[in-house]
Amino acid sequence: MTSNLAGKDIISTADIDRKALDEVMDEAERLRPELEHKGMLDILRRRVLCTVFFEPSTRTRLSFQFAMVKMGGQVIDFGLSETSSIAKGETFEDTMRMVDGYSPNVIVLRSKTVGAAGAAAGICDSPVINAGDGSNEHPTQAMLDLFTIKRARGSIDGVRIGLMGDLAHSRTTSSLSYALDKYDGVQITFIAPSKLQVRQEVVNSLRNAQFDFAENFEGVANRLDFLYVTRLQKERFPDQAEYERLKGSYQLTRAALLGHKKTPFIMHPLPRIDELSTDVDDLPEAKYFEQAKNGVFVRAALIELILNV
Ligand code: NCD
User: Fold this and answer.
1) Residue nearest to atom 12 of ligand 1 (CA)
2) Which of 171, 183, 226, 263 would disulfide-bridge 161, Cβ 3.0–4.6 Å?
3) Which residues sit opposite 191 in a β-bridge?
4) Which residues of the chain have pLDDT under 50?
């Protein structure tokens, strides 16, 4: 059967329907025990994935690479831009044309620039997966976030989630908002100091989800099933003095969490700096390391569906 995602670029969760999101999660759920028990599969034999990362990454790059290798495929990494012809002044367009010219089966791109993945998709014949374009979107993070929510709670419909932190600059929370909006009865509370509140374009795009705003977690804690925390995106502040002023403006600690009647599941795309205290880690509700592990299953499923193997 041909997958809904066969041959597709993955640029924005706003453009992916519920059926396709569910297909990725169902396939990730099917692959999870296979990968856990057998370690390596050979489903993507003779396929090559190319990772092109122009911004720092640990989890996203590694989990794409692990996913591809564990599925029996091969990986070529572009490496640091300092060691490529970008350092000689080669343009993004020429670089992407070249990468595509080597005919990888799929390209995974991360860039500082909003819209870079969409632009690359216009240049490349190979499918392009957006692994983060500036503060705009990070659709595969949203897929693994949905998968984590589904595993913890059984379903995504009706979930009540607080998105907390630097929502103004966060690409994970925008992609997650667009993805959650595809489900029924979702309630999103955007929790941030006013200077860091969610971008208007994100809120304007919501069609199904109910949403509201809060300055801090205290007043809304008891009505959340999940609290999704994000770090202050230091590298996206045009003015570093503003970053210094806002540093430490929100922090989740074990004591703050346990001071409420109900403890929500805690999620975080990682890396964390000081907005999520390490004393939360051993609470049974802490899901962020599981979230990172789920990245391999979800990305393996996604690549398989795009390659339609
Ligand atoms: C996120 C990112 O790169 O946007 N990290 C990730 O992919 N897990 C979040 C962040 O950097 O804060």
Assistant:
1) 231
2) 226
3) 164, 214
4) none
Instruction: Characterize the bridge pairing of strands 187-191 and 106-111.
Output: unpaired
- Residue 99 is predicted with a pLDDT of 97
H-helix segments, 39-138: 59-70, 92-101, 116-123
Q: Residue 133 belongs to what H/E stretch?
A: strand 128-133
What atom of ligand 1 comes closest to residue 141's alpha carbon?
Answer: 7
If one residue of 53, 62, 141 were mutated to test the ligand 1 pocket, choosing by the most ligand atoms within 8 A of its CB, it would be 141
pLDDT reported for residue 223: 95
pLDDT tens, residue by residue, 38-86: 999 999 999 999 999 999 899 999 999 999 999 999 999 999 887 778 8
| pLDDT for the residue 85 | 82
Give the residues across from 162 on adjacent strands: 189, 227
Structure tokens at 233: 């995106």
Long-range own/partner contacts, residues 259-265 (CB < 8 A, 24 or more apart): 260/221, 260/222, 261/222, 262/221, 262/222, 262/224, 264/162, 264/221, 264/224, 264/225, 264/226, 264/227, 265/149, 265/152, 265/153, 265/225, 265/226, 265/227
pTM: 0.97
pLDDT of residue 255: 95
Q: How far apart are CA 61 and CA 129, in angstroms?
A: 12
Kindly report whether the peptide bond that precedes residue 271 is cis, defined as omega within 30 degrees of 0: yes
What is the predicted pLDDT for the residue at 80? 84
